Amino acid sequence: MTEQDIHNLLVDGERVTLECKKTQNNLPGSLWETYSAFANTYGGTILLGVYEDMAEKDNAKRFTITGVEDAVKIKKDLWNTIHSREKVNLNLLRDEDVDIVTIDGKDVVYVNVPQAEYTVRPIYINNNIQRGTYKRNHEGDYHCTEQELKMMLRDANEAGNDRMFLEYYTMDDIDMPTLERYRIMFRLSNPEHVWNDLDNKEFLMQLGGYVVNRKDGTEGLTMAGLLMFGKGLPIRDRFDNLRMDYIDKTDLIGEQRYSDRLTYDGTWENNLFNFMRMVLPRLTRDLPRPFKMEGMERKDDTPQHKAVREALTNAIIHADLMLNGILKVEKYDDKFVLTNPGLLKLPIEQIYAGGESKSRNQRMQAMLRMIGYGENLGSGFPLILSAWNEKHWLKPELIEQPDLMQVKLILHIENIGDNPKNDPKENDVLKNVPKDVLKKISDRQRLVLEALAADASLSAKAISEKISEKTSEKVSVSDRTIETDLAQLKKLGILSREGGRKEGKWIIKTDE
Question: For site-directed labelling of 477, which of 106, 253, 324, 398 has its Cα 20 to 30 A away?
Fold first, then answer.
């Protein structure tokens, strides 16, 4: 790290991956709290000999290089402390992660703390895992909650979460119609498989959903078996922390909150397999399906359909189902949003790159892969990226939300070139629309206004066709969706109608 590197770090101010500490003679005790926090979060850099004025808003004036008096001693003390294992439970630092940089004649000691791999987390201090485990947010270092600590300890187990034996839960707690539906799909995908001839209990044992303890002879369901195929009541008794929810927010009219919803209402056994089986058709039914024949058989499982299936599979196999949270799927006119409890086990950039997969629920992953759900290890997310890139849709967003203990995947269904936010030249039709109103309209509604600016007499059906023609991949937009957009634009005061339904025209209102 150079002097310029230090200045570059300070430009954006102290943040989730940077901590500045003013010290002169000694290693500050708070350094180890930050070491633990960085290691358990995203990694980061600690600068010793830099003072931060918290009251100063201007980053250019906020930081002062104060330097340390004996940088060599401080560096030596750091290595002696971290190697002793008395202060921290594990040393993550390499030689190049700690060094001295001289800035304007003053020595600054930098410490680059890497993010710890999930197999060795939590990193804690003072030999106290309960009170010595920290994480990082924008406000600084904080003690991990009991829930966060338990999640890290679960993640450190390479065998995954869903192998857990559930004492007193037996085949009586399995919903047989659900298991039979799965077995039909299994048989279609694996017609010659020897498991097809097994009874239900033996079949479930082979899948990892039922176990027999060799030591004492006790037997019963695993977490994977119950959550995938169980009856709703036993699932809610054992996992009352977990909820499943599907919400369709497409084609809304007026104050309508949703057009379709699937949550527990007593009409279905709310296990994970049923949830997935019922949600997937709802989620993908509006995606374009080109007519394609292979011999006498129609093939319409497009890369985009496979990508959505992969996304829902990932939400299940990577979820921490021991946390309080919702496995939620939302469908909008221009995107899908999938949310699952738990945080990422791998860095985001590593997930985007692919090549490695570390699911929390390995038995569920195997169960789903046996019926064609889920790609080979490490190739799932690149498959999603490739399918979206093929359509020139906006890049999928994978967002970790530590404060909510959940991960969100947003799959945009709109073309890059058709998003006005990506166009440096503002369209003339929007130029004179009040700025506060402009913020309230969607990208699709901008396209509606553009179509009406060209031809004010267009019907909802004609606008739908124009927008579909404008997108390079002919992404269809329903007439009903356009009618909803017209109603909202009228409510915002941007649009008005002159004349009757057949002979009238639309008027776009502006500041002029």
Answer: 398
